[in-house]
Each structure stands twice: as C-alpha cells, then as structure tokens.
Amino acid sequence: GEEHYNCISALHKSMRGSDENASLYWLARMLEGGEDPLYVARRLVRFASEDIGLADPLALTQAVAAYQGCHFIGMPECEVILAQCVVYFARAPKSIEVYRAYGNVKECLRTHTGPLPPVPLHLRNAPTRLMKNLGYGKGYKYNPMYKEPVEQDYLPEELKGKDFFKERDT
C-alpha cells in the first residue's frame, strides 16, 4: 500500500541527503518487509542519473551492476549488493545538472508552436546520391579529423545560442 511508496521515498531522500545510516535503515526495512529487490534496484538505476548524474558518472555503472547482481542471485544474498550501492549513493556527490537540462529540452519541445525546426542540412545523413545533391551533409566537419575542436552549429537555426543547461526550470 501507501507504506511501499513512503519507504522508497524515504530511501531516496536519505541518499539524496547523504545520510548513509538512514539510507541503510530504509533499504533494510523494505527488504525485510518483503519488497522485491529488483524494484529497489530499478529505482537505484534512476537515482544514479537523476540525483548523482555527472558528479559521479560511475554511479550509473554501480546501479546497473547492482541490478544485475540482484537478478543473478536473488534474496537474501543480494541484500549486501543493494546495501553497498545505497551507501555508495549516499556518499556520492550529487548533481541534477543533466536532469534539469533534459527537463528544459522537453519543455522547449512541448511549448514550441508550429512545426519543429528542420535538422540543419550539414547534420543530415546522406546515404543516397539524391540526398547528397540536395546538400545533405554538405559542410559537415568530422571532428576526429581535426587536431583542434571545430566550430560548427548543431542546433536548428531558430535555437542557435540556446543553452538548456543554463535555463531555469519552469
């Protein structure tokens, strides 16, 4: 019932608040209460990107490994795998930079009026001669071929200069 959601919320908020002690408590309360360890592991995968993000890019690897470990061996042996992951997450630095930026992109798409802007010609795939003749891919600079980063626009013209990482959430 409702306590299922209350406990997962408490676990998330404890990890988010970097309280490893409380995080372990809520994890154990869930597992000892019969919660599916794969449910917890799935939520940890989400937490890795939503709350830790690029502050520790290895968090997502930890979460996926924990999920796989739980899937392979099940309870009760997988409890220590989840405990390790939960403590890792509680101790990890946190960043919601990607989570917010992606939200800003979604908001931009939802509030856009009219047809979405076309993909710039130089970014389009040109697998046929006709597409090449229409200018698809023309002027594209393949970065690995240059010693220095190249200047090139990747957003549609009407979004030029837009920075989803610097926008505020709505």
UniProtKB/TrEMBL annotation:
One of its GO terms (biological process) is DNA synthesis involved in DNA repair. GO terms for molecular function: ATP binding; DNA binding; enzyme activator activity; single-stranded DNA helicase activity. GO terms for cellular component: nucleus. Gene3D superfamilies: 1.20.272.10, DNA polymerase III clamp loader subunits, C-terminal domain. InterPro entries: AAA_ATPase_RarA/MGS1/WRNIP1, DNA_pol3_clamp-load_cplx_C, MgsA_C. Residues 17-168 form the MgsA AAA+ ATPase C-terminal domain. Keywords: ATP-binding, Nucleotide-binding. It comes from the Eukaryota. The keyword Nucleotide-binding applies. PANTHER family: ATPASE WRNIP1, WERNER HELICASE-INTERACTING PROTEIN 1 FAMILY MEMBER. This is WRIP1 ATPase. It comes from Poecile atricapillus.
